[in-house]
Amino acid sequence: MLHSHLTTLNAVSLILETFKPDGICSQTLLAGSGIASADLSRADTRITTHQEMRVCANAVALRRDIGLELGRRMHVSSYGMLGYALLTSATFGDALRLALSYPALLGTLFELKLEEDDQRIWFSASDYREDPALRAFNVEFCLLSLKVICDDLLGQPLPLLGARFEYPAPDYRARYAERFDCPLQFGAATNAFAFDRDWLDQPLPLADAVTHCAMVERCRRQNAEFTGRQAWLGRVRLLLAAQLNAAPGLEGLAGQMNCSARTLRRHLHDLGCSYQELLDELRFERAKQLLGEDELPIYRIAEQLGFSETASFRHAFVRWSGVAPSQFRP
After folding, report:
1. What is the mean pLDDT of the chain?
2. Taking the CB of residue 215, how many other CB atoms lie within 10 A of it?
3. Could you give the CA distance from residue 107 to residue 49 in angstroms, rounded to a whole number?
4. Where are the domains of the chain?
5. 203 in helix, strand or coil?
6. Phi, psi of 281 (to 5 degrees)
7. What value does the mean pLDDT take over residues 321-330?
8. Residues 59, 18: Cα–Cα separation, whole Å
9. Cα angle vertex 253, ends 273, 248, to 5°?
10. Rounded CA gap, 157 and 305, in Å?
11. What is the pLDDT of residues 15-25, one digit of tens each?
12. What angle do CA 217, 221, 224 make, to 5 degrees?
C-alpha cells in the first residue's frame, strides 16, 4: 500500500510455525508475498507491511480466527532488543511507555496509546489504515499480543477490566472470551483493553538498570537505522507512484534517486523487495482505487497504469487479486 513501511519477519515466521502442525507448506502461506523461504534464515531481513499482509491474508483464508492464535503466541521475546529493554525496565508503566516510544520496532499497524479513565487505563489501538478486509484479524493480533507482552513483563496474567472492539462480534466470539477473560464490547468507538491504573507502578521481576540502559541505547540506534530505511523506501515509493502511467524503469528511478541502478537494486533487495514488485504493488493499489470509483472504463485504467494493452492489465490484475477487473468492480 502507499503508506506501507518496513517490518521484521517475526509475524511471518510465527504464521508458518502455527500452520506447520496442520501440514500447510510455507509456499502456500508465502504465495504472492515475494518472500522466499531462504529469506527466513536471515535475521536482518526486512519486508514491507504489504508483504506481511499478503501472508496474513493467506492465513486468514485458511482459518478466520487465526489472529487470536497468533496474538497468543507473540511473546515479548519476539521483539528482540526492544523486548529485553522492556523486560529490564523498573516498573510496568516504564516498560509500556518505552514500548510506545518505538512503534517502528514494535512493527504495529496502529497508533498505540495509554488513556486514563478514572482508575482505569485503556491500552488502545487506533488509526488502522491497512486492508479493511483484514481489520478484525489485525485488531485481534495486535490487542492479544499486547496483552501477552503485559503478562510476560509482570510474570503473571494482567487482570483486565474490559475490552472493546470497533467491529461487530464475529461468529467465533466465544474465543474472545477465552483469550481476554473480561467483559467484552463490540461495535465500540475504539479497540482497547483496560486494567487498573495501580499496575503502572508495579516493579518488574526482571528489572536491571545496567542492562536496561544498554538495551535502550541499542534500541535507539536500531530505531534510527530502521526509520531511516523506511524514509528512503517512502521516497522511492512516492517517486514511482507519481509515474505509473510511464514507469521510469530501474535505471531511470535510480537516476532520480541520485544513485546507480546497482545500488538501488541492492538497497531494494536488502529491504525485501524489487523494482518490479514495488511497481506491481503500486499499480495494484491504484487499480483497486480506480475500479472502486466506477467512473473510468477498464481500457483507460490500463492506460493510466502504464499498460500498452488492456489484455496485459487484465492478466496482471488476475495475478494480483485472483479475479478479473470487471469482477472486482462494485
Report:
1. 90
2. 22
3. 9
4. 6-210, 242-328
5. strand
6. -60, -45
7. 84
8. 10
9. 105
10. 51
11. 999 999 999 98
12. 135
Q: Nearest to residue 229, comparing CAs of 93, 105, 72? A: 105
The values of phi and psi at residue 297, to 5°, are -65, 160
pLDDT of amino acid 62: 96
Closest CA to 86 of 77, 44, 124: 77
Nearest alpha-carbon partner for 43 in 20, 9, 12: 9
Is the pTM higher than 0.85? The answer reads: no
Q: For residue range 76-135, what is the model confidence (pLDDT) as tens digits? A: 998 989 999 999 999 999 999 999 999 888 888 899 999 999 999 999 999 987 788 899
Helix (H/G/I), strand (E/B), else coil: 273: coil
Rounded Cα distance between 290 and 304, Å, is: 10
pLDDT at 44: 65
Q: Which residues contact 229 (CB under 8 A, 6 or more apart)?
A: 6, 46, 271
First to last CA, the chain: 20
User: What value does the mean pLDDT take over residues 213-241?
Assistant: 86
Residue 29, classified by CB atoms within 10 Å of its CB into exposed (0-12), middle (13-18) or buried (19+), is: buried
Choices 3.60.21.10, 3.10.180.10, 1.10.10.60, 3.20.20.70: CATH for 242-328 = 1.10.10.60
| Cα–Cα dist 270/320, whole Å | 23
User: Thinking of the domain 6-210, which architecture would CATH place it in?
Assistant: Alpha-Beta Complex (3.90)
